[in-house]
Amino acid sequence: MDIHPELVSAAAKLVPGGEFRVGNAVDTATLPTGPFDVVFMLTLHSHFDDPARWIDSIDHLLGERGRAYVFGLFNRSPVDVVIRMNDVANGTGWLTGWNQFSEATVGRLAAERGFEYRFHEYTPIARVEKDGADSLRSHTVSIDGSSALTFVNGSQMLHRFALLEMKRSC
Ligand SMILES: C[S@@+](CC[C@H](N)C(=O)[O-])C[C@H]1O[C@@H](n2cnc3c(N)ncnc32)[C@H](O)[C@@H]1O
Q1: Is residue 19 part of a domain?
Q2: Domain assignment of residue 133, yes or no
Q3: CATH code for the domain of 119
Q4: How does DSSP classify residue 106?
Q5: Which pTM does this prediction carry?
Q6: What whole-number distance in Å separates Cα of residue 41 and Cα of residue 118?
Q7: Which of 3, 41, 89, 130 is most enclosed, with most CB atoms within 10 A?
Q8: Residue 68 is inside which H or E element, if any?
Q9: Phi-psi sector, 164: left (phi>0), alpha (psi -120 to 50), beta
């Protein structure tokens, strides 16, 4: 599911047997009818300034014994970061997509809705090269000569990725 029809039709062409839909992930009217055993949300939640909205969508979709996996930016420090980026050279205007809410806030909201949760570390293992024409595209760098890779883009903001796993408390 994606909000942009052209991306959904491109996906449908790539995977002819799949089921794809246009919709808004935080509008229950456009969500598919569950309940589902597994719900994935991949590098989407950072678009929303209120994390309760996407956690409520998972609550709406997930079955009693289901698991949800949310991959993207989460701040390990107890600091919530709301971001707008404007690629001046390409005239993008102010874009959403890089909010980095803390594990503390997301965990609290999940627990308030009766979820057990766990954050899994993500360590990039392959280099992703910089795209000179697209300053907002994320690419890997090594910090202080370390062999460990981390992601940044033209904002210079470090991208701290993690996988959030959620299930309903018994
Ligand atoms: C970083 S991309 C990730 C795309 C895909 N999930 C993946 O992992 O390759 C973020 C996607 O979120 C979509 N998007 C933004 N707001 C959305 C919303 N409210 N509901 C559904 N999709 C949304 C954008 O169109 C974009 O394709």
Answers
A1: no
A2: no
A3: 3.40.50.150
A4: H
A5: 0.95
A6: 15
A7: 41
A8: strand 62-73
A9: beta
Pocket test of ligand 1: the residue of 7, 15, 47, 161 to mutate, having most ligand atoms within 8 Å of its CB, is 47
Query: Computed over its alpha carbons, how large is the radius of gyration of the chain?
Result: 17
Task: Enumerate residues lining ligand 1, CB below 6 A.
Answer: 2-4, 7, 24-26, 42-44, 47
pLDDT in tens, 129-148: 998 889 999 999 998 778 88
Q: Which residue among 2, 53, 60 has the greatest number of ligand 1 atoms within 8 angstroms of its CB, and so is best to mutate?
A: 2
Q: Residues of the chain whose pLDDT is less than 70?
A: none
In a 13 Å sphere around the CA of 108, the CA atoms on its Cβ side amount to 7
The CA 123 to ligand 1 mean position distance, Å, reads: 22
CA atoms within 13 A on the CB side of 130: 10
